[in-house]
């Protein structure tokens, strides 16, 4: 009995010892460490860790998303890496790992978080290509993504491989490809990209660059006048839209001055300066660009004569006026004389030989004012006009005026008329209201109150006199009213009537004045016989 009891105690101790050994063995599975997680795309994160035990059967991998708890996502063999795929883009995941064997699980490794990358952009579409010149193609496309970093443009020629030629920024929808070869077909495609990768390619397009026209040649320039030249050239192209003409002066830079249509081989240039050297060149152009330039030509415009000056007009009779002028040029071919009447337009009345300085205009109308101007001309053009000069032919109808000292009645061609104030004798000279005499012969009279000045105008004569002054001004020239009697002046008599010296005014206007002492009669004949 005692022996049986001892055996039972020994057996119990043996069972306890075995259990203790087993539990110690299970507790000795060491947890993995140095867990890391790296997002390699928008749907994959790669994990790595350090294996610190030699008795594990494998590893259990757990994952948490946001505030959600951990869930086991994989059990792997005795490895130290795992790729977690099928994830959501732009999402943060947290991981932990532990080892296990038949006896149980180790402690957890450290936790590690990683965020998947964003989505790749949507592909651009509707790519188009337009050849705008022989060396440039413009691309456009539709942007269907909102998360691209930019776009990559690729190009190839027929039989070649695509290569990237440019990148443009986000939201761009065009690109201009320059520096291309003319008359060459190019192929293009575009993709969008961001940090997550590249989109699919757009549609492929192709287009050929154009061909610029051949350059014009044999440019020549011909002088037509001092202000006009004509250019001609040979058209060596069949595809030009037109021609561009450029010009410069010596030491200057070329500027475009004109364009002409396709197939044109001449251009007339006007508005030039006389006696000036100009340089010209021409190119052809079309939508693909410009040709090279033609040869350069230069030409010097001619010189028009200097304008004549100091034109004067002198009345010779009721039907003729003589003109004289100064000839200021040495290269005129002729002079042209032009004439008009008041309110009319100038017309040519004569062409006079070079070096001539006078001309008499016959066959005019009596008592008529004519205006004249003269210019010189040669094969290069006309000079400026001379000064304008006017003259009034004599009247062919005689006006006979009779008046009497102290009487208000006077006679014009035997017709009785009445003055408002009778003629008087002052300083042994007849003075009177001159308006009545002036109007009878067609002159006008005006009064300037501030200057106390009377102005009488008839044809080409203007006479100015001042109250109480013994000088007058005729056509701008000052002179004494009466050199024999300096006391003769215009006067004002009560009740404020202006009285002027008759003889001085009448004779200055081309009249003859006679005095009959016995009759106290003054006779004025206009025009003077």
Automatic annotation (TrEMBL):
CDD domains: FN3. GO terms for biological process: cell-cell adhesion. InterPro entries: Cu_amine_oxidase-like_N (IPR012854), FN3_dom (IPR003961), FN3_sf (IPR036116), Ig-like_fold (IPR013783), Mao_N_sf (IPR036582). Keywords: Disulfide bond, Signal. Residues 31-119, 123-214, 215-306, 307-396 form the Fibronectin type-III domain. One of its GO terms (cellular component) is membrane. It holds the Pfam family fn3. This is Fibronectin type III domain-containing protein. It comes from Pelotomaculum isophthalicicum JI. The lineage of its organism: Bacteria, Bacillati, Bacillota, Clostridia, Eubacteriales.
């Amino acid at each position: 009995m005692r022996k049986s009891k001892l055996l039972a105690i020994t057996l119990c101790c043996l069972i306890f010892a075995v259990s203790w050994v087993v539990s110690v063995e299970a507790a000795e599975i060491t947890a993995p460490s140095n867990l890391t997680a790296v997002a390699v795309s928008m749907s994959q994160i790669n994990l790595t860790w350090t294996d610190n035990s030699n008795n594990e059967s494998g590893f259990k991998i757990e994952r948490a998303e946001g505030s959600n708890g951990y869930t086991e996502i994989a059990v792997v063999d005795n490895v130290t890496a795992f790729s977690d795929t099928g994830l959501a883009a732009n999402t943060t995941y947290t991981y932990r790992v532990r080892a296990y064997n038949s006896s149980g699980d180790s402690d957890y490794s450290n936790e590690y978080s990683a965020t998947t990358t964003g989505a790749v952009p949507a592909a651009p579409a509707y790519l188009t290509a337009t050849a705008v010149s022989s060396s440039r193609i413009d691309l456009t496309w539709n942007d269907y993504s909102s998360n691209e970093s930019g776009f990559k443009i690729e190009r190839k020629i027929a039989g070649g491989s695509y290569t990237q030629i440019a990148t443009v920024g986000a939201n761009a929808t065009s690109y201009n490809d320059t520096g291309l070869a003319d008359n060459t077909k190019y192929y293009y495609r575009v993709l969008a990209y961001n940090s997550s990768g590249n989109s699919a390619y757009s549609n492929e397009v192709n287009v050929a660059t154009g061909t610029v026209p051949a350059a014009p040649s044999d440019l020549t320039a011909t002088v037509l006048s001092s202000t006009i030249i004509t250019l001609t050239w040979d058209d060596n192209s069949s595809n030009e839209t037109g021609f561009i003409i450029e010009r410069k002066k010596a030491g200057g830079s070329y500027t475009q001055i004109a364009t002409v249509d396709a197939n044109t081989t001449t251009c007339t240039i006007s508005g030039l300066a006389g006696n000036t050297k100009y340089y010209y060149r021409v190119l052809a152009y079309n939508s693909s660009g410009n040709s090279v330039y033609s040869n350069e030509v230069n030409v010097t415009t001619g010189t028009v004569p200097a304008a004549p000056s100091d034109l004067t007009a002198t009345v010779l009779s009721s039907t003729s006026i003589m003109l004289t002028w100064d000839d200021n040029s040495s290269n005129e071919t002729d002079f042209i004389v032009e004439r008009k009447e008041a309110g009319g337009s100038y017309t040519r009345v004569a062409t006079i030989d070079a070096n001539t300085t006078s001309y008499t205009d016959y066959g005019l109308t009596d008592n008529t004012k004519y205006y004249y101007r003269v210019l010189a001309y040669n094969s290069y053009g006309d000079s400026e006009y001379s000064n304008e000069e006017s003259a009034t032919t004599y009247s062919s109808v005689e006006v006979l005026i009779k008046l009497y000292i102290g009487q208000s009645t006077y006679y014009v061609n035997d017709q009785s008329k009445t003055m408002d104030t009778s003629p008087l004798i002052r300083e042994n000279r007849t003075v009177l209201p001159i308006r009545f005499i002036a109007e009878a012969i067609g002159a006008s009279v005006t009064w300037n109150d501030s200057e106390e000045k009377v102005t009488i105008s008839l044809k080409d004569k203007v006479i100015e006199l001042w109250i109480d002054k013994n000088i007058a001004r005729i056509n701008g020239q000052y002179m004494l009213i009466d050199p024999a009697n300096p006391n003769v002046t215009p006067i004002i008599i009560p009740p404020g009537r202006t009285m002027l010296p008759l003889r001085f005014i009448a004779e200055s206007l081309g009249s003859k004045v006679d005095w009959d002492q016995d009759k106290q009669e003054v006779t004025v004949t206009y025009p003077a016989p």
